[in-house]
Amino acid sequence: MPGTITDEIEIIDAGRGGGTDVPAGGDDDGEGAGGGFHGIPQRAYFTVIQLGLAGIIMFFMALTSSLLVRKGLGNDWVAFNFPRVLWLNTLILLASSITIQAARRNLHGGEKAAFKGWWNVTTGLGVLFLAGQFMAWRQLASQGVFLVTNPSSSFFYVLTAAHGLHLFGGIIALLYVSHRNWRRSRISQVTATDVASIYWHFMDGLWVFLFVLLYLGR
Q1: Please, which of 66, 136, 150, 192 could form a disulfide with 78 given CB 3.0 to 4.6 Å?
Q2: Rounded distance, CA 152 to CA 78, Å?
Q3: What is the DSSP letter of 182?
Q4: Could you read off the pLDDT of 189-206 as tens digits, one per residue?
Q5: What contacts 24+ positions apart, CB below 8 Å, involve 7-15?
Q6: Residues 74/173, Cβ–Cβ less than 8 Å
């Protein structure tokens, strides 16, 4: 399973090796107030997240291809009632992309209090989405539809679980940004916020794709 964004940030931090702590006020290009510290450029973090997202795309495209091939192999593909809560879950995740963008804009504008408020709302919406996915599974179970009931239900559970696991990694990243002591960090809060936002928007778009795939392919 591809790593989460928090793992990728920490890998970059650990990969410096032997360096001193970042002086207070150091920027993303790595040169601190004393002019002697050379850190990792901001663009390196964006390169890492791009590589991570490429791996996630390959993983989900493999699952998508498997679904399409398996559905076309025979007539044993049985439709099931699509959980209605997924429509609400989709709206919740779309709303979270709006709130995270509002948080990012406030941070860039120096409005720390507003940033924290919107960021916490985004985190709450992410948790609410995961709770909604669990409710969708409960709705299927009440219909007698489980992981091994049919190939169609198997792919539904696997795809939603895989996305939920990756989104949980995004929630960990949001908490990381909220609670990190940035005075002792080698990455600035602005950069971490931008990278986490990219990951979150990607998870949002990925869910929309999976929602359409599962709804039409059930």
Answers
A1: 150
A2: 6
A3: G
A4: 999 999 999 999 999 999
A5: 7/169, 8/48, 8/49, 8/52, 9/45, 9/48, 9/173, 9/176, 9/187, 9/192, 9/195, 11/48, 12/40, 12/44, 12/45, 12/48, 12/187, 13/185, 13/186, 13/187
A6: no
